[in-house]
Each structure stands twice: as structure tokens, then as C-alpha cells.
Write a structure and sequence with these properties.
Layout (H helix, E strand, L loop, with lengths): L1 E11 L2 E9 L4 E6 L4 H7 L8 E4 L11 E4 L1 H15 L2 H22 L7 H19 L19 H11 L1 H4 L1 H4 L8 H8 L2
Parallel strand pairs: 1-4, 4-5
Antiparallel strand pairs: 1-2, 2-3
Helix pairs in contact: 2-3, 3-4, 4-5
């Protein structure tokens, strides 16, 4: 029902190739490919037929497959810490604390055999998540427009993270809605470490 996906650059005969990994608790599939994106994922043959929840690091090609996704919150936690420390974004600190709090509660339910958090609790956490984002938007500095530059102006780096957390709320909180989904996507990272 849940498979973790990742890819990592690897040199083969001095040329950059990509090691694609699909991992479950008991099985890991490795495949080398010259490409990183959708062509390689199609050739690998797992994602095109996969019907469960794909857990990954939010790389866009993964969203071409399936309907259910879980995002790696290890990435989010690192970014939230960075924006808190680098840009004094207090919403980042609150969001980080909330994700950890949800994880603790999910673990406490798993410990007693509950496969799902009670709907009242998940609804409560979902509302807090949205509230932190609403309040956080007020903290993110606006980007001053430079009339000399053409094209769309760049956003503040914290706004990019904010947008991802807002637009992919369900995927970020997938670990809260299904106990089979992990908070992080560390499994394929660990599976590729030795290679």
C-alpha cells in the first residue's frame, strides 16, 4: 500500500547516471538509468502501475503517477529550521513543532494498535496547520519589484516553502491520515547510502 521512491546521481564509467530506488519495509528495487525523470520512471515499470501511496521528496515527476502521495517531512523540517534561523520566520518554528507533535500522537495511537487517528484529532491538527499558515503569511517579507527586470519577480525563499506546505497540505499530512505512511522518506535514502 505504501512505497518510498527516490533517485540519486551515480557515476558509471565517468558519466552521470541515476540510481532509482523503490523501497518498502521488506523489499528494495534498484535500477540504473541515464535519465532522472519520467522516462526513467516509466522504464522502471513500478510507478506506472502502482496504486498505493507514493512517498517521495516532492520532485514534480512523481506527481505524474497515482493519486496518493506522501511528502518527506524530513525535508520540510530541515527547511523550516533554516527559515526560522536564517529569516526569523516564527511560523516556521510553529509548523515544525506542530509536525513533531502530530508525529508523537500518531505514534501513541500506533502503540495501542489504532490504525488511524480519530477524525476529531486529525481535524483539530488540520485546522492548526492552516492557522499557522494563515498567520505565517503575514511574516513573510514582500519582494520589491524591480521594474528593470523582465518576467515574474522572485518570491522570498520562505514564501516558496509556504506555498508548498499550503498547496500540498494533504500530502504533507499523509502520515497523520494513514498509519502506514511514514513522516519521512528516509527509507530509500538509507537504501542508497552504501551505493
Amino acid at each position: 500500500p505504501v512505497v518510498h521512491f527516490d533517485e540519486s546521481g551515480l557515476r558509471v564509467m565517468k558519466e552521470l547516471n541515476w540510481l532509482h530506488v523503490a523501497s518498502t519495509e521488506n523489499l528494495t528495487h534498484y535500477e540504473m538509468h541515464k535519465k532522472r525523470g519520467q522516462e526513467a520512471m516509466d522504464d522502471m515499470g513500478i510507478l506506472p502501475v502502482f496504486k498505493g501511496t507514493a512517498v517521495h521528496d516532492h520532485w514534480k515527476p512523481y506527481f505524474h503517477y497515482g493519486k496518493k502521495h506522501g511528502l518527506c517531512n524530513a525535508h520540510h523540517l530541515r527547511e523550516l529550521t533554516y527559515h526560522e534561523e536564517q529569516y526569523s520566520q516564527q511560523w516556521s518554528k510553529k509548523m515544525k513543532e506542530l509536525l513533531v507533535e502530530i508525529k508523537r500522537e500518531v505514534d501513541s495511537h500506533k502503540a495501542v494498535g489504532d490504525l488511524r487517528m480519530p477524525p476529531k484529532r486529525s481535524s483539530y491538527f488540520s485546522r492548526r496547520y492552516s492557522h499557522i499558515l494563515r498567520e505565517g503569511l503575514k511574516e513573510i517579507p514582500p519582494v520589491h519589484l524591480d521594474e528593470k527586470k523582465r518576467g515574474k519577480p522572485k518570491q522570498h525563499p520562505a514564501k516558496n516553502l509556504f506555498d508548498r506546505l499550503r498547496d500540498f497540505k494533504r500530502e504533507t499530512l499523509a502520515f497523520m491520515y494513514a498509519s502506514t505512511v511514514n513522516l519521512t522518506n528516509n527509507r530509500p535514502d538509507q537504501d542508497t547510502r552504501m551505493t
